[in-house]
Write a structure and sequence with these properties.
Helix content of chain A: under 10%
Shape of chain B: globular
Largest sheet of chain B: 7 strands, mixed
Largest interface: A-B, 26 and 26 residues
Strand content of chain A: over 45%
Order of helices and strands of chain B: EEEEEEEEEEE
Oligomer: heterodimer
Distance between the termini of chain A: 37 Å
Number of strands of chain A: 11
Structural class of chain A: mainly beta
Number of helices of chain A: 0
Structural class of chain B: mainly beta
Shape of chain A: globular
Distance between the termini of chain B: 36 Å
Radius of gyration of chain B: 13 Å
Radius of gyration of chain A: 14 Å
Largest sheet of chain A: 6 strands, mixed
């Protein structure tokens, strides 16, 4: 079993829809949770960063962490065609420190928002 | 800042040839990561360095793969000899000290015929 599980999709939604992307994990030591967005033929870029449980909002994006269930989510409101990309969850046990910034990534979910 | 720089952006080679991929991390970052991405396996961590020292190379698939970081501003990933199953996009990423946010380069798309 992988440490981080993410449904690869693909997920196709109409413009304006609310999108929910999810990851589950097995390592209870994970405390820092990230979402990366990767456009076609580009490198992943950091989209959201959260620490421990709770919600964090940034514009149309909301990241949610439930450590008790080992489950994280990314919600996209009023989705746009420009949101079409692969979304990867990532997590770490500590910020830098002995892991030197190593992250454990999910498989990535391919999202298409059609007009 | 120019971000992480990788070269070449595309590489097409024949089976058995040596391939060298290059990476320049963001200035001041002290951790560097090499990844391979395929549709089947997603993003796989191959090896990472901290302060130019290899920390964990358990993700390197075979002895045909090797990586070096001779100084803080340069790293190479070498495949010798290359095989068709090595075809993938290879990413380099760097991270500043005390942080776990990684900054990725644009990747090198490798095709081995």
């Amino acid at each position: 079993q992988k440490e981080v599980e993410q449904d690869p999709g693909p997920l196709s939604v109409p413009e304006g829809a609310i999108v929910s992307l999810n990851c589950t994990y097995s390592n209870s030591a994970f405390q820092y949770f990230m979402w990366y967005r990767q456009y076609s033929r580009k490198g992943p870029e950091l989209l959201m960063y959260t620490y421990s449980s709770g919600n964090k909002e940034d514009g149309r994006f909301t990241a949610q962490v439930d450590k008790s269930s080992k489950y994280i989510s990314l919600f996209i409101r009023d989705s746009q065609p420009s949101d079409s990309a692969t979304y990867l969850c990532a997590m770490s046990a500590n910020a830098g420190g002995t892991s030197y910034g190593k992250l454990t990534f999910g498989q990535g979910t391919i999202l298409t928002v059609h007009p | 800042d120019a971000g992480v720089i990788q070269s070449p952006r595309h590489e097409v080679t024949e089976m058995g040839q040596e391939v060298t991929l290059r990476c320049k991390p963001i200035s001041g970052h002290n951790s560097l990561f090499w990844y391979r991405q395929t549709m089947m396996r997603g993003l796989e961590l191959l090896i990472y360095f901290n302060n130019n020292v290899p920390i964990d190379d358990s993700g390197m698939p075979e002895d045909r793969f090797s990586a070096k970081m001779p100084n803080a501003s340069f790293s190479t990933l070498k495949i010798q000899p290359s095989e068709p199953r090595d075809s993938a996009v290879y990413f380099c990423a760097s991270s500043p000290a005390g942080a776990d946010t990684q900054y990725f380069g644009p990747g090198t798309r490798l095709t081995v015929l």
